[in-house]
Amino acid sequence: MPDAQDLAHPVQPRPAFSDRDLRILRGFAQRIDAADAGAHNNLGVLYFNKGLQEEAIQQFQRALAVDSKMVVARRNLEIAYFATGFYDRMISELRERLREDPGDAEARTRLAQAYLNSGDHPGAVAELKRVLAQDPDDLGVLIQLGQAEKAAGSFEAAMTWFQRALEHDPDSAVLHFYLGELYYNRGLNDEALRELTRAVELNPDLADAHHVLAFVWGDMQEMEKAGAASRRAVQLNPHFARAQANLSLDRYSAARYQELVGGRVRRPESAPGEKLAHYNLGIAFRQKGLYDEALHEFARALERGEEPALVRQAMAEVDLLQGKAAQALDLYDRLLAEDERSPKLWNERGVCLHQTGDVDGAEQSYRRAIDSDAGYALAWNNLGVVRLHRGDDAGSDEAFAQAVTLRPQFVDAWCNRGLMYLRRGRHGAALDAFRAALRASPDAASAWNGIGAVLMETRRYEEARNAFVRSVEADPDFAEARYNLSFVLSNLGDFEGALRETKRALELNPYYTTPRYKLAIDVQFEYAEVLAPELDAAERISGDHGVDSFTFDDQALDQIFAELAPAPAAAAAPTPPAADAFALAEDYLSKGLLDRALGEIRRVAVAGADPVQAALLTAQIFLRQGLDGEALERFDSAIARLEAQPWGADHSRAWSGRARALQRLGRLAEARESAEAVRHHDPDRVDNLQVLGEALLGEGDAVGAVRVFSHAVQLTPKDAGLLRNLGRAAQAAGKADDAERALRLAIRLDPDFVAARLELGRLYLERGRNADAAAEARAALEVLPAYSDAVELLATALRASGDSRGAVAPLVELLAGDPYHFDALLLLGQVLLDEGRRADARTAFTRILRFDARRADALFHLGVVAAAERRFREAIDHWRRAVDADPAGPYAGPARENIDTALDIAHVFQTAAAPAVP
Q1: Among the CATH numbers 1.20.210.10, 1.25.40.10, 3.40.50.1370, 3.40.50.2300, which is that of 172-241?
Q2: What count of Cα atoms within 13 Å lies in the side-chain half-sphere of residue 507?
Q3: pLDDT digits (tens, 9 = 90+) for 25-53
Q4: Is-contact 831 843, C-beta < 8 A?
Q5: pLDDT recorded at residue 838
Q6: What is the spatial distance between Cα 142 and Cα 611, in angstroms, rounded to a whole number?
Q7: Nearest alpha carbon to residue 499 among 566, 568, 567, 562
């Protein structure tokens, strides 16, 4: 039986599943716990291995929505994005949508999310700010901006966005939680405590808030409160206490991850210049962990004469990273003979000596590095480690302090300091050091492991488990953290989990090692670390006399844990739902946190909350996610449960939602029937009237749509969207005056309503009011500059009024930013043809045909150009091709007429040119 990890492939074609198989596979998504990030991740791996790439990406995204710190899910998402080409296709499609409609907030939000998921935080922030400009009060966008800035490490900026959101909704438990978590990440425990306490006051069921509160209380040495908060968090969300096996598409291999993703997320840097080709390739190989290939390229670089000093330095670094300290030392000595003032070279020479056990020589080299540059933090860190190995506790403390003073974000130095304090039994100081490392990098696996070690030594096993889980999530290949997690799970009685973690740790490293200090080296174009030798251990094996082999009996391990495991306890009764059981879900929903809302709905539903409300809220979320079929199923489920009850508000909500889902699915007749059922019982429900009007308009009953939208407008006369729909319906019904009146009212209510302005402009154009049409187009362009629909309306209005020269300018400006906007090119060609600039017009039409040789409109107008130049055979050829391209299209009839006319003219010319008959 192959391991699940061995089933992952970099690229899978979408297989031809039967409808039944697809339903079964997709049905898994509805059966997993929506609040379980690991379940979403593992289902994503299953989908990916089955070739269902879009479904896989959706599950990885949901995992990250539940737990943004889940590193394995982010790696899987990056692989699914980049190894399949999905990312490039999606970005291209979204940019095309935005080119056609810059005001498409949904497309821009999806683009921002794609940037965020791929690590492009500045790109995500820029797109979200554009969305926010359209609606400055959009809480969902404000929160997304805060999350994007936080992911980028810009905590101050993130704080600003969350506080701005809180001004709009001061009683949101979710927003107070986000602020509290951010304060905690910054080390501001008092502020974090204030916000998190307020969050649980507003909603006692917010598990995330209790979870972070446990860490805050722990930092403040309030152990009883920390334990209570941790237990409450686990009671509300058992996943906080569960360390499960999360599947990885790269099989937890850094080299395979880089192979699958390419350079798309973490691009290898290289030195400029074509003369360093082999050197640059070697750097790229080294950054992917392909050390032998890197050394091969560096050797070729030396043969080609590529900067010997630069290449030898790179070779020395690779030797050092591979543990070949003696070999690297020879290269560093040669390099220092040429540049004895380099702090970098002295520091790395010290690491070589340190690795071989020559602590005296190592300290001298670190001191030489500091003498060359007193601000070289890496050398101060390494000096601290070597002083520890020499027994100089005070000197090591001083060196570590200097390292973190020079570089406050130096995670390894903070962790070394924490480990030093931990070994001395100074648990409080150790915890402070590891917390400082987390402030520098919230996902530092070594820091979380250190915190777990401190908590385990103080017998705070539940909190220690949480810390080790965070460490494993941050670095799934961190064997030390997995061993520690297995120990603490065993202490907590979770012997099955302990067994799983022990097995995984043994796969990663069969030798359990105590925590190690880290030596820092400044590798060209990146930072690297090397584990210091355990020179202070009482017993150790030299590198030349290692253990030859190691075997372990898996069955014996299973038996040990089976004997230790207690009898299964009765399942704990679920916490009964509160009266306002769905308050937290609705809070998430109002902030656009749809996946978190789904997880909360599932939690309270399992606890016994009203299944009808659960189904209705779930359906509402699915509608917002564009999952219209799934939404319809949930609405139908709610309707079935309500069948025996008299009609009430829930019936209206369910049937109206059903109508909306059907309308989006294109099932207009069924949508109309459902909406009519609601109108019979609840005639003034505006959202239902909106759906009914759209269904009627889609079916061609414009008069009926006018009646419905008119009633809706009477109920909510300040709704610009309803007025716009009334205008559309009136125009379709042939009531131009009523349409104009409704659209003008919509614009008066919302002067920035671009869609209404364009529809009013087109109405003016149809009625021959060209100047008014141009005015509406210009007003739309003030709101959305370079909006292609507005530019086309303006150019068309100017052309219709006889101002062809004026029409050229906006079209040229649009095409300067988008040279292949075919509709604009066609209109420009028509305008140029009006001005008699046939050659320029031909260029415009020909450019369209280079990309789409069957564009009937471009072919037709090329025929017009040829006919104007009296090249009738060429014109006839273009018109025939236009007819072939679209036989039933709007240009087919005129093209056929032009062909007949051109043939007649050609016949006249041929007759006139014939010689006279004697």
Answers
A1: 1.25.40.10
A2: 13
A3: 666 666 666 667 777 777 777 777 777 77
A4: no
A5: 92
A6: 31
A7: 562
The encoded tokens of residue 616 equal: 């209705």
Structure token digits, residue 68:
């943004």
SS3 for 519? strand
CA neighbor of 30 nearest in space, from 619, 473, 575, 881 = 619
Nearest residue to 720 (alpha-carbon basis) of 712, 656, 679: 712
DSSP calls for 303-369: HTT--HHHHHHHHHHHHHHTT-HHHHHHHHHHHHHH-TT-HHHHHHHHHHHHHTT-HHHHHHHHHHH
- Interacting residues of 210 by C-beta distance below 8 A, sequence separation 6+: 200, 229, 230, 232, 233, 236
- In tens, the pLDDT along 271-330 reads 444 455 666 667 666 665 677 777 777 787 777 777 777 778 888 888 877 778 888 888
Report the mean per-residue pLDDT for the chain: 78
Answer for the pair 577, 608: CB distance below 8 angstroms, yes or no: yes
Provide, rounded to the nearest whole percent, the portion of the chain with pLDDT above 70. Answer: 80
Determine the 3-state secondary structure of 233 from DSSP. Answer: helix
Residues 6+ apart with CB under 8 A from 127: 108, 109, 111, 112, 115
Closest CA to 177 of 463, 591, 621: 591
Q: How many CB atoms lie within 10 A of CB 805?
A: 12
| Distance of alpha carbon 211 from alpha carbon 228, whole angstroms | 10
CB of 775 within 8 A of CB of 791?
Answer: no
Q: Are the CB atoms for 400 and 381 separated by under 8 Å?
A: yes
Report d(CA 307, CA 310) in Å as an integer: 5
Question: Can you say whether the dihedral through the CA atoms of 152, 157, 162, 165 is positive or negative?
Answer: negative
Amino acid at 431: L
What values do phi and psi take at 607, rounded to 5?
A: -80, 0
How is residue 512 annotated by DSSP?
Answer: -
**Would you say residue 396 has pLDDT above 50?**
yes
Instruction: Return phi, psi of residue 312, to 5°.
Output: -65, -35
Which DSSP state fits 606? H
Token readout for 568 is 């299964």
Mean pLDDT calculated for residue range 142-169:
85
Take residue 84 and report the two structure tokens written for it. Answer: 């399949």
Q: What is the DSSP letter of 476?
A: T
Name the 3-class secondary structure at 711: helix
Cβ atoms of 465 and 485 within 8 Å: the answer is yes
Give the pLDDT confidence of 531-549 residue by residue, as tens digits: 455 444 333 323 333 323 3
- What residues are paired with 336 via a beta bridge? none
Q: How many angstroms from the chain centroid is the CA of residue 791? A: 33
pLDDT in tens, 801-825: 999 889 998 998 888 877 768 888 8
| CA distance linking residue 71 with residue 445, whole number of Å | 11
Rounded to the nearest 10°, the torsion over CA 195, 128, 104, 698 is -20
Higher pLDDT, 827 or 79: 827
H helices then E strands: how many in the chain?
48, 2
